[in-house]
Design goal:
Shape: elongated
Strand content: over 45%
Largest sheet: 5 strands, antiparallel
Number of helices: 1
Strand order of the largest sheet: 1-2-3-4-5
Oligomer: single chain
Number of strands: 5
Length: 100
């Protein structure tokens, strides 16, 4: 693709989308996932203590930096967001719906 420039976010989005579309469902006891979500990057580890319950530990991270001038006032914004969560999933209705 001559003359086209992809940013890292576009590459990550394309990789995450293609991985999601071609992946198959796995029933492993423990899983590891790297994904792009609301806060940009996400790392997740999941464990199935029983056949119908799942525990997930996840960490999300995002950084945004910008600067400029508005009405003669210079501004510089450095935004750093992160979140962590421990989630419990119970799939109901024949695994077509889940409570978290």
């Amino acid at each position: 693709m001559k003359g086209t420039s992809f940013t890292n976010n576009k590459r990550i989005t394309i990789l995450a989308t293609s991985t999601t579309l071609i992946s198959q469902q796995s029933y492993a006891d423990t899983s590891f996932d790297v994904d792009v979500g609301t806060l940009n990057g996400k790392i997740q580890v999941a464990q199935s203590p029983t056949r119908n319950t799942h525990l997930r530990l996840e960490y999300n991270d995002a950084n945004y930096d910008t600067n400029g001038e508005t009405n003669g006032v210079d501004h510089d914004l450095d935004l750093e967001l992160s979140s962590a969560g421990l989630l419990f999933d119970w799939p109901a209705l024949n695994k077509s719906f889940r409570f978290t």
